[in-house]
Amino acid sequence: MENLALLLQSEATQNQYIFNFILMNIIFIISYINRSKKNNVKFTWFLLIIFCLFAYWDTDYFSFRDFYLSPDFVNFRDPLYYYLSLFSFNSYTIFRLIIWGGGLLFYIKSLKNFNIPLNISAFIFAIFYLLTFSFGRISLGVCMYFFGISLLLNTSYHKTSQFITGVILVICSYWGHRAMILPIALTPLILLKPNRLQISALIVVGFLIGKYTTPFLAGLLSGDITIGSGSAAEEALLSYASNENEVVMNWKFKLTSELRWYSIYALMVYCVWKCFYSKYRDVVRLGIKKIVVLSFGIFLIAFNLQQFDTIGANEMGERFLFILGIPLTLTLAFLKKENMCSHKTMMLLLLPAFVYAEGFIFGKILSF
Known about the structure:
The protein is an all-alpha fold. 70% of the residues lie in helices and 0% in strands. α7 (118-135) runs antiparallel to α17, α14 (251-276) runs antiparallel to α15 (286-307) and α14 crosses α17.
């Protein structure tokens, strides 16, 4: 069993924040040093896994542990995790290793399917996505989904087994987290042969959808509209609506937190521009373009949800934005590998995420 003192916690201690802050910066430094070296890449990914195992920095670490230890875990809303817990030997750390280790393994396999180097990918992943990836169980579903997509888009060989495996992984990602219903619904976008006209049309359609679904979403979250008594989807939406932010943040801390979203906005726009409007648009690999189109579809819906005043919609939008960390880091690593993105541009794109990561945990340390 886990340490009793840890079991009684609901939030990290100052020492645990310091531990995460130091380990995070060690990872940043080592991944930067090894960004062009192949021989040390395994150690970098090992450190990434260790950080995920002990991600005390977010309260989800403790709330998920409480679910794991509860006798009612068998009825957990995402049943996949109960079945995974059967292989954890009653250890929450091993349980996290199965989930986050499995997620990173899916991500690494996706990188290999697109022939993207693991060294530069580890650095980009660490700066841009490590904090977000390490706290939510959605990470397993996201990595499972995009590994499935990478199998469907991998043109180096075509096998029926590869196609079937890809489809199964895409569908099963829903049991990793119900928010994966959005990318699953948008999966047909990969059937398109994307171009600038389609991207422009997607922008128009995306914002029109956002505009005209506002009344429905407002009614759904207020209870005036129902989608089936006791349905899983309705329960999930209303759970977002019932969340209340109990932390009163000063403007500096709030601005630092907002950098998480600004970093996603900036990288999403950059990837769309680079793949469809820049001088490199005709040489970017088709599979990468399809990943960007799929990501952009998710982004447009998530961004629209963030703009709604309806309580709960903003949280839903943020949850969908979490999904974009995997495809965006994969795309940026591809662009860097192909010399379509300079080192200076890459560092500028990663800067908001870096400031967020440093400022968020350091602010938590100073709050004690």
